[in-house]
Amino acid sequence: MNYKECIDWIDSFEKFGIKLGLDRISHICKKLGNPQNNYKIIHVGGTNGKGSVCRFLESTLFNNGYKVGTYTSPHLQRFSERFIVNNLEISKKEIVKILVKIKPIINEMINENNTPTYFEIVTALAFEYFKIKNVDYAIIEVGLGGRYDATNIVNPILTIITNVTFEHQNILGDKIEDISFQKAGIIKKGIPIITAATGKALEVIKKIALENNSIITIINNNSWKKIGGGFDYQDYKVNGSLKEYNIKTSMIGKYLGENVALSIASIESLQMNGVYITDDSIIEAFLRTKNPGRMEIIGLKPIILLDGAHNIAGMNLLRRTLEEDFIYNRLIIIIGILSDKKIQEILDIITPISDIIIVTKSQNKRAFNPLLLKDMIGIKKVIVKERINDAIEHAKKISENNDLICITGSLYTVGEARDYLL
């Protein structure tokens, strides 16, 4: 297979949708010799903020001389973005080499009516790649939920659950306690757990941590304080277990302080368990960390902001950031949402503060019809553009230097926009 044939082959498994469970991924990895057992793993779950935490930890460990693999999803522009080792994406040649090895295993499973999902195959690819690259640490982001997510066959040295809010209720359950139970399924016996969950979600996580004899560190509003910042940087004071930190980052967003504090607590947990990390390296790592597509400014005059907010909590945070951290004349929103999201609730958060709304859709098969989006928005003047490229060009045409164009609603929408703009 060449690279295009490999990607086409993987993409063909998307039609099988989401099938949670650990049997299929366990079978694939067993056939590969359980590559996930060859390096130390940090497992990162939760609703929002996973990507930022993964990036902060990746930068910090890399700064201290470790070989670090990072597996995140979904990708924004390129499939290879999901698999990073020491800040470099996997090559097309390496993808082909690994999939040629995996494909016979998958074909055998298909013949036995045990077809794996897209995410299970991609996860197995990640585990094998990190083994081949002989990484010291792998930072593994949960795909969906946790308990029955394909990543949950790992044996981590540290577990992180960023926060828990409503998402994927059709799969994870309608109550926050049910969603928390699924996300807390990544907690392992005796392994430290760091979380910023609150309320009923935190109670579930604390109960499962106690059952697993896992030391829990809880991040709350007293753990950090914003002490400065603008539209392109933030300064925080973080109250760690070992010391107080002054952290500056070029990343922005109302949720960022929580993610910074989570990352600091995670780094301290690693330090207390024998991982060599210097204080100076932490400061430098946070300063240079970026997380594309999440509160990312890629243009000025007008400001063009990309944010992949795709659930209620994420959109609330985006709205707060727009209202409190930016100064602009008009807010022009370009929005495309996937059909399995809480669409009306998401629209009701962002549209009241928008001056001009352009609805569109990504090329993802789950993208919601923009004509229906327009109907759901109601009284506001809404412009429909079927293609994201056209939506961006229209926004640029009607905007003035002191306006703000925000592209949001889905990581797929943001990814296509980023690909076009950059």
What can you see in these coordinates?
The chain has 422 residues and is an alpha/beta fold. The chain contains 15 helices and 17 strands. It has an 8-stranded mixed sheet, sandwiched between helices. A 6-stranded mixed sheet has the order 12-13-17-14-15-16. The longest helix has 20 residues, at 92-111. The radius of gyration is 21 Å and the shape is globular. The mean pLDDT is 94.
Question: Main attributes?
Answer:
single chain, 422 residues, alpha/beta, UDP-N-acetylmuramoyl-L-alanine:D-glutamate ligase, Protein-Tyrosine Phosphatase, Chain A, 15 helices, globular
Task: Tell me the layout of helices and strands.
Elements: H1 3-11, H2 23-31, E1 40-45, H3 50-63, E2 68-71, E3 83-85, E4 88-89, H4 92-111, H5 118-132, E5 137-141, E6 158-161, H6 169-172, H7 176-183, E7 193-195, H8 199-211, E8 216-218, E9 224-230, E10 233-239, E11 244-249, H9 256-272, H10 279-288, E12 296-299, E13 303-306, H11 312-325, E14 331-335, H12 343-350, E15 356-359, H13 370-377, E16 382-384, H14 388-398, E17 404-408, H15 411-421
Parallel strand pairs: 1-5, 1-6, 2-5, 6-7, 7-8, 13-17, 14-15, 14-17, 15-16
Antiparallel strand pairs: 2-3, 3-4, 9-10, 10-11, 12-13
